[in-house]
Design goal:
The chain is α+β, with helices and mostly antiparallel strands and about 525 residues long. It folds into 2 domains: about 130 residues, no CATH class; about 325 residues, Beta-lactamase. Helices cover about 30% and strands about 25% of the residues. It has 16 helices and 27 strands. The chain has a 5-stranded antiparallel β-sheet with strand order 13-12-27-26-25, with helices on both faces. Strand 26 and strand 27 form a beta hairpin. The protein is elongated. The N and C termini lie far apart (about 100 Å).
């Protein structure tokens, strides 16, 4: 009897062991198939996740720059499936295999797939489409966290509280879904929240497409009066799918070149001209012989035989270096330096956390007391450096009737994808007398219209602009000095709405490398916006 009792206890223990092993194996199979099972007193739960939704980065009109496309995913329970899914599922072979396994699963499908007790369809935003036009602004993720651009600056807003899109079924103790017991579906609305930028998606596309003509450089397009950045591009671009290659690329594609400072060149003549007009020296006339001797140092004009007698308008059109050197010698140096600072030179441009434009280098008054340093400064060379953002902001003050509007990239945030919250008004300050600003606009207009060789001239839209060919002190393997090609300007000429700055790093002459890009962007913008 004792042996029988012992045998019965052993048999009972073995039976319990086999039962729990079977339940455990069933749970493991479900979890490996994308389903999770939770044990209950009499029932379990089977949960299927179709993917997570994150917050969206929007353009100024609340059009998505991320999450711009969606994919459709179906959560399927084979055990209670009655209909044929082959017409809706993208991968027919995967469907066949998953149905044969007999466990709940999630699979990609087309829009319009029919729902039932056994099929639940989710619309899942795709973070990137592979066709983004603003990678340096948007940035990228690593291990689910933002590490650059707006993805970094607004990481918490975009990802905090992100919820899975999921469906939960009731199941028996073995994890088998119970037909007729219904289902609990959760659909995330996180994609409707996010950050609203000042970018215009269409204009960003235009600047991106036309900017691809350069190997290295930047494009900044802003709105007159508000300082809103409508488009911001940096080249070369990078692939989020291959950050490792970008890190070792000699051309440093991860750098946002709109935030980096460069030698400015002749575009800075606008500041020298502004100070001259402010001091009543707009009528200054000088004769260019092709060079100027400043305390024993020879400064050459780009035209070796000289431009002859020049007034301010002619010197701006011809971009005559020696004229501006002589002009600077009759100006108040401290006021010229103060004006430069007021216009944004020597100051950082803060767009958002982790995205701040360099202050560049603005020589001190003491340094400008050295005649050769002042000569260089007068036409944008020497120690002076600035970012495309700063040059664009300068041009915006001229186009904006003397009011400097601080550039901004962020409008605010949205909680519903339909309205903007926490929006701040544009920050403007009067830095140039309106009459002086008008004279500068006319100088820039004539610098294009009176120059038959200007590649910024257009039959579609009138513009005012100034080109630069800025020496860098660096040389190619052939021994030729590398120069940065610039152009900055506004359009339409007599009622400015847009400010456009193009930098082609190591591009050579501004009129050859930067002006054609400027013209095409201005023309396409005018055609699109009217």
């Amino acid at each position: 009897m004792r042996r029988r009792a012992e045998f019965g206890i052993i048999a009972l223990a073995a039976a319990f062991f086999l039962m729990f092993t079977a339940v455990g194996l069933n749970y493991f199979r479900l979890s490996q198939g994308g389903a999770a099972v939770g044990a209950g007193s009499s029932q379990a739960l089977v949960e299927l996740s179709a993917g997570e939704s994150q917050g969206t980065i929007f353009d100024r009109e609340l059009r998505p720059l991320t999450n711009a496309s969606v994919r459709y995913r179906a959560a399927v329970v084979p055990g209670i499936l009655e209909e044929d899914l082959s017409a809706y599922v993208l991968d027919k072979e995967e469907l066949r295999q998953r149905l044969a396994e007999g466990e709940p699963f999630v699979i990609d499908c087309v829009k319009g797939a029919l729902e039932s007790d056994a099929v639940t369809v989710f619309e899942i935003p795709e973070r990137y489409t592979g066709e983004e036009t603003a990678p340096h602004v948007i940035g990228y993720l690593s291990q689910g966290k933002g590490v650059s651009g707006l993805e970094f600056a607004y990481d918490r807003l975009l990802r905090e509280g992100a919820l899975d899109n999921r469906v939960i079924y009731s199941a028996d103790g073995f994890g088998q879904v119970l037909a007729g017991d219904g289902k609990s579906v959760s659909r995330s609305s996180k994609a409707r929240t996010g950050v609203v930028t000042t970018l215009d998606r269409d204009l960003q596309q235009i600047c991106h497409e036309e900017g691809l003509a350069m190997e290295k450089g930047a494009v900044v397009l802003s709105e007159v009066g508000t300082g809103d950045i409508l488009a911001l591009c940096s080249f070369p671009e990078f692939s989020r799918d291959d950050i490792a290659s970008a890190l070792t690329d000699w051309d440093s594609p991860l750098i946002n070149r709109a935030l980096y400072s460069y030698s400015v060149g002749s575009a800075f003549k606008l500041v020298t001209a502004c100070e001259a007009l402010s001091e009543g020296a707009g009528g200054f006339i000088s004769t260019c012989t092709g060079s100027a001797d400043i305390s024993g140092q020879i400064f050459s004009c780009h035209r070796s035989d000289g431009h002859g007698q020049q007034d301010l308008s002619q010197a701006m059109t011809n971009s005559c270096n020696t004229y501006f050197i002589e002009l600077s010698r009759i100006l108040d140096t401290a006021k010229l330096r103060d004006l430069s600072f007021s216009l944004g030179f020597g100051r950082e441009t803060h767009l958002c956390s982790g995205m701040t434009g360099s202050a560049g280098v603005l020589p001190t008054v003491e340094e400008l007391m050295i005649p050769a340093e002042l000569a260089n400064f007068s036409f944008g060379q020497g120690r002076l450096t600035a970012t495309p953002l700063q040059v664009n902001q300068l041009t915006g003050a001229i186009a904006g009737n003397g009011e400097l509007a601080l550039l901004r990239l962020i409008r605010g945030i949205t909680l519903d994808g339909e309205s903007v919250a926490n929006e701040k008004a544009p920050q403007r300050s009067a830095v140039i007398d309106p009459e002086v600003a008008e004279e500068l606009r006319l100088l820039m207009i004539h610098a294009v219209s009176d120059n038959e060789s200007s590649n910024a001239r257009s039959d579609i839209v009138t513009v005012g602009a100034k080109t630069s060919t800025a020496q860098t002190g660096r040389f190619s393997e052939e021994g030729e000095e590398l120069c940065n090609a610039w152009i900055t300007g506004f359009f339409p000429a007599y009622s400015p709405r847009y400010v456009l700055t193009v930098l082609v790093e190591d591009g050579g002459y501004g009129n050859d490398a930067a002006a054609p890009i400027f013209r095409r962007i201005a023309e396409r913008t005018a055609e699109l916006k009217g």
